[in-house]
Write a structure and sequence with these properties.
Strand content: 15-25%
Distance between the termini: 9 Å
Helix content: 25-40%
Strand order of the largest sheet: 1-2-5-4-3
Order of helices and strands: EEHHEEEHHHHHH
Structural class: alpha+beta
Number of strands: 5
Largest sheet: 5 strands, mixed
Mean pLDDT: 87
Number of domains: 2
Low-confidence stretches: 5-9
Number of helices: 8
Amino acid sequence: MNLEKDPRSKTRIVHSEIEVKSWTTDRASCGAARPSSCVACGAASRVPGEALVIVGHGLRSRSVEGPSAPGEDPVAIELLARRYACRACDAILVVLPRGVGRGTRYSLSAIAHALALWGYARWSAAKTRVAISAARARGFTSPEQWSSLRRWTACATALFGAPTTTGSLRERASQIAAWLASHAPLAIGVVPTDAFFGAPFVRTR
């Protein structure tokens, strides 16, 4: 599991090895999603013969948007993040499926795919948005633009831990996409597809 600090004290975000699709279809049980140890203090989740140290602490609804796979229509879904409390240090652990980032409603795979389509495959911003966003409303002032592409390119290091890139925004997006594609478990040599499947793994390595 991968750890991120939440701005609130004593709260930690943990990424499970369970993927979004399995999480939403099978709804990861409290036991299946429970971290093996507390990422705040290191206490083991359970000690044989003793009471649980990391206990369930409710659920939190979370919206996630984007296609489930390259070429599929984008959808917006609601998933339930699992919360746990560490009885050893009082930390609150919020467990999310692999591929769900903090601070964005789009899945990490959707963001990676968007950067690859726009930057590497040179799709227009409008066409990329149709492939990634479930919302069909467009801005009135610049209907052919999608500011999210620029924002994701600019904050790729925070989102993915991507290395520094150079050049125009599209050139930078292309470099980021190629780097994400290199993390695909079963790469097929198609950057937009490999970036989609590689993105969730850069946060758990």
